[in-house]
UniProtKB/TrEMBL annotation:
<keyword id="KW-1133">Transmembrane helix</keyword>
<keyword id="KW-0472">Membrane</keyword>
<keyword id="KW-1003">Cell membrane</keyword>
<dbReference type="GO" id="GO:0005886">
    <property type="term" value="C:plasma membrane"/>
</dbReference>
<keyword id="KW-0812">Transmembrane</keyword>
<dbReference type="InterPro" id="IPR023845">
    <property type="entry name" value="DUF3817_TM"/>
</dbReference>
<protein>
    <submittedName>
        <fullName>Uncharacterized protein</fullName>
    </submittedName>
</protein>
<dbReference type="Pfam" id="PF12823">
    <property type="entry name" value="DUF3817"/>
</dbReference>
Length: 117
């Protein structure tokens, strides 16, 4: 697997997971707080938003976290934190930004030319 492709996919899925959380929270707000169906969907769109989030992006994020665990050789603690970041709303974006900043989305066995000097 190409680490660059895995990195890009992880970043896209992490953002999508957070966006699907926003969609689900907005649908729940419409259903229970506004008691409205703004999109003409049954129950304010909660079933649709729930499927997009749960069966779609949540599972994709978990799968991508496991793939990244092996491709980027994360330690157990990092892998667990990545998986736990799928649970609170928007935590996947926090983890992705932290992983990018800490260099966790690059292969550790790859030696860059600028580090050889």
């Amino acid at each position: 697997m190409n680490p660059s492709v895995i990195r890009t996919l992880f970043r896209v899925v992490a953002f999508g997971e957070a966006l699907s959380w926003l969609l689900l929270l907005a649908a729940m707000f419409c259903k229970w707080v506004l008691d409205a169906e703004p999109f003409g969907l049954e129950e304010g769109g909660v079933p649709v938003a729930g499927m997009v989030h749960g069966a779609g992006f949540f599972l994709l994020y978990v799968i991508m976290s496991v793939i990244c665990f092996f491709v980027f050789r994360w330690n157990i603690k990092t892998g667990v934190i990545a998986l736990l970041a799928a649970i609170p709303p928007f935590a996947s974006i926090w983890f992705e930004k932290k992983a990018e900043r800490d260099g966790l989305l690059t292969r550790r066995d790859t030696v860059r030319a600028d580090t050889l000097a």
